[in-house]
Amino acid sequence: MRYIILFFLFFSCNNYFKNQSNSDLARVDEEYLTKNEIESIFENSTNFADSTMVLNNYINNWAANKLLIQRALLNLPQENQDRIQDLVDDYKTDILINTYIDAMVNENMNLEVTQFELDSLYDNYKETFKLTEELFKIRFIYISNLNPDISLFKKKLRRFNIDDARYLDSLSFQFNRFSLNDTIWKNKNEVFYQLPNLKKVNKYMLKKSNFIEIKDSLGLYLINIKDMLKVNQYAPLDYVSETLKRMIINKRKSVFIDQLRKDITKDAIKNKSFEIY
């Protein structure tokens, strides 16, 4: 019969951990749970009742896990246990190798991507970047139907020079919602998420340089479509630049890792720590 010995705390866990020497909190056969193992859980705890409950739950879960592992080792066929150990060993190997490779990559590989590299890769793979959905550059404000400056806001949102942008931004506290950054491409789903009422608009109105007004029970949407690209047009470079960067870095990383494997093997052969019989 297995026994679990629990030591309950009768004063603040935080003070207990600070004032007491290293001690055991629980035991399952020959395995012990010590105070040091769970100190971090109570570092900032000041509530005695909560700390005690958390501690007891932690101890009980720890014990249950240890007991389940013991049962598994006793009752699972050795074949199953061997397969599990193989998986654990493979996982550990992968983590060690990948962690080391990542460290070597970060330390030794150039992760900067030049504009020339982006332009070259974009030109080489341009056909793969044909759009499957429309893209938009858009700005909008959503204001109360009762706002006295609606006409002025329309004028400034349409024209949108530097002074207009500053003016609208300075009065953005009057807007229920707004987005004045029209330099970023957004796909249709992103636009419809921001402006669900646009779904009700005739699709022919969703075109470059068009100004759209949509009124609902709560206010008025003023929307300016600065630019628009249709399906099968080429995605602009700035829209796919992050994808291009990943492609360049991944290729560079692949070359680096191949060379690392060759070098480490060559060194091992030279040092006679690796031999093929």
Question: What would your notes on this structure say?
Answer:
The chain is of the alpha+beta class and 277 residues long. It folds into 3 domains: 72 residues, no CATH class; 44 residues, no CATH class; 99 residues, Chitinase A, domain 3 (Roll). It contains 9 helices and 8 strands. The strands form 2 sheets. Strands 4, 5, 6, 7 and 8 form a 5-stranded antiparallel β-sheet that branches. A hairpin with a 2-residue loop joins strand 2 and strand 3. Helix 5 packs across helix 9. The longest helix has 34 residues. The radius of gyration is 32 Å and the shape is flat. It starts with a strand and ends in a 7-residue tail after the last helix. The N terminus is likely disordered.
- By secondary-structure content and strand pairing, the structural class works out as alpha+beta
According to DSSP, the number of beta strands is 8
Helix content: 40-55%
What low-confidence regions span 5 or more consecutive residues with pLDDT below 50? 1-21
Instruction: Name the average pLDDT.
Output: 88
**Count of DSSP-assigned helices:** 9
CATH level-two architecture of the largest domain? Roll
Query: Cα distance, first to last residue?
Result: 53 Å
Largest sheet: 5 strands, antiparallel
If you compute it from the alpha carbons, what radius of gyration comes out, rounded to the nearest whole angstrom? 32 Å
The CATH class name of the largest domain reads: Alpha Beta
CATH topology group of the largest domain: Chitinase A, domain 3
How many domain units? 3
Order of helices and strands: EHEEHHHHEHHEEHEEH
How much strand content do the residues show? 15-25%
Based on Cα principal axes, name the global outline.
flat
